[in-house]
Design a protein that fits this description.
With about 300 residues, the chain is of the alpha+beta class. The protein is about 20% helix and about 25% strand. It is built from 5 helices and 16 strands. Strand 1, helix 1 (about 30-50) and strand 2 form a beta-alpha-beta unit. The radius of gyration is 18 Å and the shape is globular.
């Protein structure tokens, strides 16, 4: 599962971060009641995304503020009984938002992980979110490489924003290349908020060696599908990509990995669009302005 959870901030100030708007006295009037309600709703969504027997094994999350938020989510929200553990970045993003990976230890055992810094400042841009890279083992003893990213925003939709996004993509591509250089048959899962649709330039760099798991045909995208709704138009800004080796592995098991958004009723407004947390600076009562993406992966396991 991948999900941009829209400004999951706590109510405390992080030194050197621009999070004052999300304090109780800030412009968003973000109180403890709002915070704990959102944590429980995020947790409820994650549980509902799973099967009757198991919550999602991996959850890539975007727009989480810090380690305290992830600790509260996994230990003090409705997720506390599930047993998730987490890894996350500590990036130089001015607002303090990061990416994280929730994982179930019985389904995925991390062997190594690190945070990859996008060289934004060196190229004249403001710092953006780091890329999280995790290498782990599945119960079938297969190795899985997981990357979680949140590329720079389209704010202003100008040339600078596009150049910054391409810089982040080239950084991500270098991580993918470094893995494939060591292990050409690496099974990789790359997920996150790319702030771009599949037909935009950023994916020409990544595909190949990665493959999209969402519908990409123009005909399919004519229907009201997507994870993000803006100006009465749906689009897929969130993506889950897989390596050729992972795709071949799944096809060998008789399974075609196809991602799709999760349209739970409590995530949507009456018109079917995401029930977001904020409208401008006003609390809107929803959970996120993005819908989650889910993808099934199969493996053979003999206990």
């Amino acid at each position: 599962m991948e999900w941009n959870v829209e400004n999951l901030f706590d109510t405390l100030h992080d030194e050197h971060k621009q999070d004052l708007d999300f304090l109780p006295g800030g412009s968003y009037r973000w109180t403890s009641w709002h915070y704990w309600r959102k944590l429980d709703e995020v947790g409820r969504t994650i549980v509902c995304a799973g099967s009757e027997s198991c919550a999602p094994a991996l959850v890539g999350m975007c727009e989480v503020e810090n380690d305290s938020v992830m600790r509260d989510l996994t230990r003090r929200s409705v997720l506390r009984a599930v047993g998730y553990r987490y890894l996350m970045t500590q990036s130089a993003d001015a607002r303090g938002i990061d990416v994280a990976l929730l994982y179930l230890p019985r389904c995925f055992r991390p062997l190594s992980w690190h945070s990859v810094r996008v060289p934004s400042v060196q190229h004249g841009f403001s710092p953006t979110r780091d890329i999280l890279y995790v290498r782990g083992i599945l119960p079938s003893c297969d190795t899985l490489h997981v990357m979680v990213c949140h590329l720079p925003s389209k704010a202003g939709n100008g040339r600078m924003a596009a150049q910054h996004r391409m810089l982040a993509v080239s950084t991500l591509h270098s991580v993918v290349d470094s893995v494939l250089c060591v292990s050409p048959q690496a099974r990789m899962l790359v997920m996150g908020d790319f702030n771009a649709t599949f037909h935009e330039k950023v994916f020409r760099t990544l595909c190949p060696p990665l493959r999209e798991t969402l519908p990409t045909s123009r005909r399919a995208l004519m229907h009201p599908v997507g994870t993000y709704y803006f100006r009465q138009q749906w689009s897929y800004l969130d993506h889950i990509l897989v390596s050729e080796a992972l795709l071949s592995w799944q096809e060998g098991l008789g399974h075609t990995p196809t991602a799709g958004e999760l349209r739970l009723p409590f995530l949507l407004k009456e018109d079917g669009s995401p029930h977001r947390t904020f409208l401008g600076n006003f609390y809107n009562g929803g959970i996120s302005d993005h819908l989650p993406l889910c993808l099934d992966l199969h493996y053979l396991w003999e206990p």
